[in-house]
């Protein structure tokens, strides 16, 4: 009997492991007809594989219950409760939605409707209950991410290894906004940001060959982010670098490792510049802001400072001088300063969008700016009824709320304050969620990440897998401020949340 119970448990774990392989390797690499309608192809691949594997997992668990086999009791954690509350908010918002038929699957091309939200929550609960802690999935995810980022970097260096851009000129939209096996550059930014934590954690905590591969993967991430034609990816790369620096301020040897990783960011810029100077390739960039950031001489200053600090610390390490970081004073001071600066920046941004600062009216004049879109989103939400403000209009109902239900967006378009593009989201995940699932959905979603980070705060400094999850979720949250949910990053985030609440919340001392 015990053997049968063990076999059933192993079967469920194997199914979940197989799904993680499909998610972390199959989904990023899958292409049906190169980059043509790749959004639909990726969604259908995600939905169909999740439904099929999910059905097998459910059947295996039900069979286990029918046979009366004993299952390991798992106490419900705070993240579980918030995840369930998030699902309830999605279901309730769908039930009261004035466009119920549209929000079942979601807006065409993105498909983040009720079905997808249910699948995301299902991924979390399946992984958190049945992921066995296997380390091989991290190797699979790391190798896949390395392949994707390498192809993306080569695409930006005008090297079309897959032939997906054949016949396209450098200046046209598809050539500058699509890349690698992912497609849309916003999708790409989300993907590389949520998977970068795996390479960064290996470089920070790994040994020998593992660390060397981690450094290589980190270099590819930085180089691909800085050339991706996505400000979001650049912000994620800088944000993850700063977070890694903060985590290293408790011990000198950790700070040395963090600086070795951080030096890769300006080095990646220098490498691409070298290619351009030698006329080996052409750089495909469309955004003026990205071009100015890429070619700024400030990178030389950053690199010189990093090298100088590194050499000083290395000298103190060799002389075996006392480690002043171990007292924790530097860590507390820098973290406090970082928190204060972050809160001030968020407050300034909120006041700017709300129109309470001098000159903030110019925000509305930026016809294609995200701040204008954020402002009209807030105006639309403020005019919804109390019921919709609490529960929302349904998953992926943003287009309906902005263009068919509300009048502010069309009014702004007619006045030239907002461009005439079709927006199916606010380019800010939290504002989009506010409209679609109301304040209840925002609270639940925030609670999910807050409780997950609280559980990871100790294990992230001791277990490289937990650190990979911590950095991956942080990269996802940075992107969430400027992008949206999609099937090339959000499922990975929910899988990482499941891993965090499964075995990684335990402090496991292992060799990576």
What does this structure look like?
By secondary structure, the chain is mainly alpha-helical. It has one domain. The chain is built from 23 helices and 2 strands. It has helices spanning 2-29, 38-66, 78-96, 100-103, 114-130, 136-156, 173-177, 185-205, 208-226, 231-247, 252-262, 264-277, 288-295, 298-318, 329-354, 361-365, 370-382, 386-391, 398-405, 408-414, 429-459, 464-480, 490-501, and strands at 178-179, 183-184. A two-stranded antiparallel ribbon has the order 1-2. Strand 1 (178-179) and strand 2 (183-184) form a beta hairpin. Helix 5 (114-130) runs parallel beside helix 23 (490-501), helix 6 packs across helix 8 and helix 17 crosses helix 21 (429-459). It is globular, with a radius of gyration of 23 Å. It starts with a helix and ends in an 11-residue tail after the last helix. Residues 363-368 and 507-512 have low confidence and may be disordered. The chain crosses the membrane at residues 12-31, 43-61, 81-97, 109-127, 139-157, 187-205, 210-226, 232-249, 261-287, 293-313, 334-357, 430-453, 465-484, 490-509. GO terms for molecular function: ligase activity. One of its GO terms (cellular component) is membrane.
Number of domains: 1
Could you report the average pLDDT, rounded to the nearest whole number?
Answer: 86
Helical/strand content category:
mainly alpha
Low-confidence stretches: 363-368, 507-512
Count the E strands: 2
Portion of residues within helices: over 70%
Choose one word for the global shape.
globular
Q: Quaternary arrangement of the chains shown?
A: single chain
List the strand order in the largest sheet: 1-2
Report, as a whole number of angstroms, the end-to-end distance. Answer: 35 Å
Strand fraction band? under 5%
